[in-house]
Design a protein that fits this description.
about 280 residues, alpha/beta, TIM Barrel, 10 strands
């Protein structure tokens, strides 16, 4: 349903920084591993430019510090730069003081590189839930206007299934707008419909049906996300990971870019700030 503009978002992190690999790849090893994020981002920029789509890039400070020219290329192409924290620590693994430093440091770096205000934040692994809603107040105090950190689904690594499915103002955020990644409601449950591994798991026709349902039945814009490493079938394979992690991470990587091209053709897309912050658009 192209009359509704949906939000295209990219979580900018490299393959070795995913939370599922945290127990296998120590952060101290990151510097010694071959980085592929810049090459993959350039492919994504070409894909988006081909369809004249502007998107939001939730970027790790660790990545931005090493590839500032990549951030500037995003800006030159008209995309929004938002924060994904500094080095992909889940909020559930941080003390309040650590979280405050993380979101402040990453915001300051991204603003220094871009010369623009950073308005949005997405927690690594959607790791804000009932146990750490205090984080929303810290985000508001740091100057963020919106967050996309609460995922209203049941999942073994994240989720707050009783949260609203669409944008809302949590009382803990004191004016901060929370924008959950999209779900569709089926048989009394919220079903992930906004990307990630599920987009590689479902046949494309299922994902398209889910998003059409959100646009047509809920009459709401969808929020879709993916990672640069998801279009990178040739990324180094990790040894010693369990079968579930291996399945989730590597499933259908070779099909991802083709599915994204279908997605960019079948729906209308834009930036988070332009869609959800009227004063920006």
């Amino acid at each position: 349903m192209k009359s509704i503009r949906n939000a295209m978002t990219i979580d900018v992190e490299d393959y070795f920084q995913v939370s599922a690999f945290a127990s296998h790849i120590p952060r101290e090893a990151w510097e010694s591993l071959p980085c592929r994020v810049e090459k993959n981002i350039d492919r994504i920029l070409l894909l988006l430019d081909d369809k004249q789509i502007k998107a939001t890039f939730f970027t790790l400070g660790w990545v931005a510090k090493r590839y500032p020219s990549m951030i500037k290329r995003m800006l030159e192409n008209g995309h929004e730069i938002a924060s994904h924290g500094w080095s992909h620590y889940r909020v559930t693994d941080q003390q309040p003081s650590e979280f405050k430093e993380d979101i402040t440091q990453s915001k300051a770096l991204l603003e220094d590189i871009s010369g623009q205000s950073v308005l949005g934040y997405r927690a690594p692994s959607f790791s804000i839930n009932h146990k750490n809603l205090w984080a929303l107040e810290f985000l508001q105090e740091a100057g963020y206007q919106y967050s996309s950190s609460i995922y209203p689904v049941q999942h073994d690594h994240y989720g707050m299934p009783d949260a609203p499915r669409f944008g809302f103002y949590p009382p803990e955020g004191k004016g901060l707008l929370e924008l959950p990644v999209t779900t569709t409601r089926l048989f009394g449950h919220n079903v992930p419909a906004g990307g990630g591994g599920y987009f590689r798991l479902w046949p494309y026709s299922v994902s398209r049906w889910f998003l059409n349902r959100v646009n047509q039945v809920d009459t709401q814009p969808a929020i879709f996300y993916f990672h640069p490493w998801e279009i990178d079938y040739e990324q180094p394979r990790q040894e010693g990971i369990n079968l579930k992690t291996r399945f989730r991470h590597y499933l259908n990587l070779q099909r991802m870019e083709g599915r994204l091209r279908l997605l960019t053709h079948d729906f209308k897309w834009g930036r988070m700030d332009h869609i959800f912050l009227p004063q920006i658009s």
